[in-house]
Amino acid sequence: MTPRSPSPGSDIDLRPRLVRTSSRSPGGCLPSLAYVRLARGYYWLPNRDAERWQHRHTLSLARAIVAQLSQFSAVSLSHASAALVLDLDMFSQEPDVYLAVSSTPRQVHVTLPRIWVPDHGTPMPIPDSSADSSPCRDITLWRRHLTLAPDEVAPVGQVAATTAVRTAYDCAFDEPAHNALSIADSVLRRYCHPHRERPELCTTTMTRVRREWARMLEREPRRRGMAQARAVLSLATPFAESALESAVRWLVLVLGLSIPQLQYPIDTSEGCWWVDLCWPGQRLVLEADGRKKYRSSADLWKEKRRQDALEAQGWTVLRVSYGDMMRPDRLGAKVLSKLSPQEISGLRPRQELAWTGMHLDAGLREASMLGRRLPRGTG
To answer: How many whole angstroms separate alpha carbon 243 and alpha carbon 281?
Structure first.
């Protein structure tokens, strides 16, 4: 029901298998116990062979698709839900669901049925009676009255979604900043097709996208979350190669480090290496190790030679995985430990990228910022 294809190197199709039933459905056509109920009349069949991250991605897609198909007032999917069906990279694995509606809604948000995705095995629904002891967070469906131009919505398969540029704009306001930055980077990457050896080739396209964002910002000067939105959209770059790189960049910016050089070339005895995030003045490199980076023992050996060559020249190399980002406090402390006391004293944390009351030891937010920014009962 979406154009999402299997991920590279994977045999698992990430498109959700959905079934719709009605009161007139014959008994033999009703879903079996293997199906998971998402909404009245809509069921999802998980793939038994999928890994946890694949289940979570497909479940998020399924929730978004079902939300629009089952809500008569919906104009389109928006925010992170639009990003999912548009196949934009994002860091959050189970974001909230967003619908753009045609008028101010009576009910702004509703909690969706709880579904637990275990480390191993297939997802399972959680009865309402056990909500207080649920091992997973609540997923909220948000209905937002957005003023959308006709060219800011487009069909995607059987649903409609805001365009990529508009999607990144809305996420910059209402998604947690690390996820919003991941999505904005992904949009620029898609439009610019960056070439790290010739970054100037991106200039024209990047300028055009930024002008579109600037026009949108001028249309809504009083929208809640403006400080974060301006920061995210101004910091977005096509040269972040993954959502993990984007999230790591968000973390170091929140800590107050200067904007890192991305895809920075360093000449070594083993040849020229391009590193993910780099601060040449501090001789510090951060490398993002995603799921698909090492596909063979040869890849691991090549990466070891690369790191040894960099460290032989006096560079400090820190490798960052998705697991590291799940404990941003520990990762942040590790990065700061590589700076001198004088450098640490000069840091200026970017508060516009931090949510109210943010404590890194509590982990990263996945839920929408709307719950903190919208008074109850408003649209």
So the answer is: 25
Q: Residue 347: how many CA atoms within 13 Å on its side-chain side?
A: 18
pLDDT of 316 = 94
Decide: helix, strand or coil at residue 110: strand
Question: How do strand 42-45 and strand 115-116 relate by DSSP bridges?
Answer: unpaired
8 A C-beta contact, residue 94 and residue 59: yes
Say if CB 176 and CB 364 are below 8 A apart. yes
Inter-axis angle of helices 243-255 and 177-192, nearest 10: 130
Which string of DSSP letters, residue by residue, matches 143-208? Answer: EEE----GGGEEEETTEEEE-HHHHHHHHHHHS-HHHHHHHHHHHHHHHH---TT-GGGGHHHHHH
- CA dist., res. 241 & res. 256, Å (int): 22
Span 30-57, pLDDT tens digits: 667 889 999 989 999 999 999 999 999 9
Nearest to 86, CA basis, from 6, 176, 187, 9: 187
Query: What is the distance between the alpha carbons of residues 105 and 74, in angstroms, rounded to a whole number?
Result: 10
36-39 and 42-45: which strand pairing? antiparallel
How much is the pLDDT for 9? 45
Calpha distance 167→182 (Å, rounded):
12
Is pLDDT larger for residue 221 or for residue 378? 221
Taking 3-state DSSP, the helix, strand and coil percentages for the chain, each rounded to the nearest 5, stand at 40, 20, 40
Is pTM beyond 0.70? Reply is yes
pLDDT digits (tens, 9 = 90+) for 108-151: 999 999 999 999 999 999 887 665 556 788 999 999 999 999 99
Cα–Cα distance measured from residue 331 to residue 329, given in angstroms and rounded to the nearest whole number: 6
List the one residue out of 169, 177, 228, 236 whose CA is nearest residue 202: 236
Neighbour tally for 17: CB within 10 Å: 14
Which pLDDT band, with edges at 50, 70 and 90, does 27 fall under?
low
Quick one: pLDDT at residue 32? 77
Residue type for position 275: V
CA distances from 325 to 116, 176, 265 (A): 22, 14, 25
Q: Say if residues 250 and 181 touch (Cβ distance below 8 Å).
A: yes
